[in-house]
């Protein structure tokens, strides 16, 4: 199903067989939990315990690209497998009308990890989603290109607010609501899924490159950029986020010796873009 962030491989979160099929289709390790997508705050409150910080973040950013990790309720319609056995649940209300309609029609949460095979770049177009995992899906819904193009921001509200994954909602936007964010705990049990090589193309990546070398594909950025894969000639980070995964895939398909990427500013959305690039390059431990 399309969402405003990336295409998701969707399943009824309460149905362990369906959820197992999602892990299988993605080749995703079962210790990496899935996000439960809800139609609205009322559905979210039926699966997770909201405190005042969670209420404030949901009021400000939902529906939209923010995922909250909260204590799970015993009665939640999210199976153990979807939570990787944790006593917490990640929950998000997507803004995309098709995703919203599907969840509302089911009447309970839908898990929808990115529709790529595990470790590969997320699909942000219908064609890329079908290429990655279409063969495993009973139905594929075409919602056009994703408006944001980067995965949701993930924030845990278990003790202090922690940023588990930078994303489309920026650090500054979050801190305006809940104050300073702590970093994710090193404890892999509390912050699973922070894998080093992730979102990766087949070709090796060379980041912060000034110019491409012979044989390299070139992802440029800004007015001085060149070639078919300029992430944003205007130097606009939102435009670069939309194009990032599609251009990574296109550059990869050209069979280069490496994919060279121009420096991307690190403020605002740039934090999430640089996070994905470092993981695509395998630089994050
Ligand atoms: P995605 O890969 O887009 O499905 O996002 C799922 C990510 O959200 C995981 O890789 C984790 O980093 C995070 N996540 C999901 N559930 C939890 C949880 N219960 N506790 C901590 N992080 C979680
Ligand atoms: Mg993913």
Question: Can you summarize this structure?
Answer:
By secondary structure, the protein is α/β, with parallel strands linked by helices. The protein contains 8 helices and 11 strands.
Keywords summarizing the entry:
285 residues, alpha/beta, 8-stranded mixed sheet, binds adenosine monophosphate, 11 strands, DHBP synthase, binds magnesium ion
Question: Could you describe the 3D structure shown?
Answer:
With 285 residues, this protein is α/β, with parallel strands linked by helices. It folds into two domains: 11-190, DHBP synthase (Alpha-Beta Complex); 205-280, no CATH class. The chain is built from eight helices and eleven strands. The chain has helices spanning 16-26, 41-45, 52-61, 97-106, 126-133, 171-178, 237-253, 270-281, and strands at residues 11-12, 35-37, 66-71, 88-92, 110-111, 153-157, 161-165, 182-183, 205-206, 217-219, 259-261. It has an eight-stranded mixed β-sheet, with helices on one face. A hairpin with a 3-residue loop joins strand 6 (153-157) and strand 7. The mean pLDDT is 94. Adenosine monophosphate binds at residues 32-35, 69, 83, 86, 88-90, 113-114, 151, 154, 156, 164-165, 191-193.
